[in-house]
Design a protein that fits this description.
Elements (H helix, E strand, L loop, with lengths): L5 E9 L3 H6 L2 H25 L3 E6 L4 E7 L3 H7 L5 E4 L2 E4 L1 E8 L2 H21 L4 H12 L23
Antiparallel strand pairs: 1-3, 1-6, 2-3, 4-5
């Protein structure tokens, strides 16, 4: 059996209207990207990219989008992303653009890149702080930027109440 390799494209929704990021949905992003691929590359490009194209992650608060496509067609996807000019959600059209931040082979590499990117953004904000309260809140955010492993929540773990069981 053959494993199909994928590429993950990490994007940022850039918009002047702050309501745009709050109202977007993954279906709207997927439809806008497929429409842009169809306009730029035609039926061939749309067919190549549609095989395993999905929106894997969308954070409407930060405007972060993670797209998955096949390794063979990731260049078609990346070349069509600048042509996304608006997102349509709930019968509203919001003008915006998709800025490509990173292209990776796994979701984990994209997560690591996003943490480093957010740290750099927070450091830039820290340099532009005007008062001490802003500075403290940004420093707290900087210290909380990490990728940690989740501890298993199963009942197989031993309870640590000071007694030994044999």
């Amino acid at each position: 059996m053959v494993r199909f390799k994928n590429r993950y494209v990490l994007c940022e929704v850039v918009s002047e209207d702050p309501r745009c990021r709050q109202c977007i949905e993954d279906r709207a992003v997927g439809a806008a990207v497929k429409e842009a691929i169809g306009r730029v590359h035609g039926d061939y490009g749309l067919a190549c990219c549609s095989i395993s194209f999905t929106v894997k992650y969308l954070n409407a608060y930060t405007g972060t989008v993670l797209l998955r496509c096949r390794k063979d067609s990731h260049r078609l996807l990346c070349s069509a992303l600048p042509f996304v000019r608006q997102l349509e959600s709930r019968n509203q059209r919001y003008p915006c653009a998709l800025n490509t931040l990173h292209v990776g082979g796994t979701i984990r590499t994209c997560q690591k890149f996003l943490i480093q990117y957010n740290r750099r953004q927070l450091l830039m904000l820290l340099q532009n702080c005007t008062n001490e309260e802003e500075r403290r809140s940004i420093e707290k955010s900087l210290l909380s930027c990490s990728l940690t492993e989740e501890q298993p929540q199963s009942g197989d773990e031993e309870e640590d109440d000071g007694t030994e069981t044999d």
